[in-house]
Design a protein that fits this description.
The protein has 125 residues and is mainly alpha-helical. The chain is 58% helix and 11% strand. Helix 3 crosses helix 5, helix 3 crosses helix 6 and helix 4 crosses helix 5.
Length: 125
């Protein structure tokens, strides 16, 4: 049986391979994997997306947006905070969350745009 996803012969471009391997040394893929793992949960992704659309939201806002209890919203926000995705500030009896930086907003927005474009792929009109 033949696998059409494989090259028929084994050969590689040594220059390209070495160039990419050298670049790989300067990144911490374990940390990046943790970031993507945190965002791989659909609820945490909803929370992150909500924070892309508002400068900050309190835990009560987030709970209402995602349709959860306060403890559930708080749990997801705490995990996102521990991963360095969101930051928080306390004002009286309220706790407000916001995204850690603009790059995270861009990343989530790019993922949303990619998903919009991918919806029609493979479907006939």
């Amino acid at each position: 049986m033949r696998n059409e996803d494989l090259c028929d012969i084994y050969c590689y471009d040594e220059t390209k391979v070495n160039r990419v391997k050298e670049k790989l040394k300067s990144y911490h893929f374990q940390d990046m994997a943790h970031l993507f793992k945190a965002l791989a949960d659909h609820t945490r992704l909803k929370v992150t997306y909500a924070l892309c659309n508002e400068d900050e939201l309190c835990v009560c806002d987030v709970a209402n947006i995602i349709g959860s209890t306060l403890p559930t919203a708080s749990h997801h926000l705490r995990l996102l905070r521990n991963m360095g995705i969101v930051k928080y500030r306390k004002e009286g009896k309220l706790v407000f969350y916001s995204l850690q930086n603009e790059l995270l907003k861009q990343m989530v927005r790019l993922a949303m745009e990619h998903q919009k474009g991918a919806v029609g792929v493979g479907q006939s009109g």
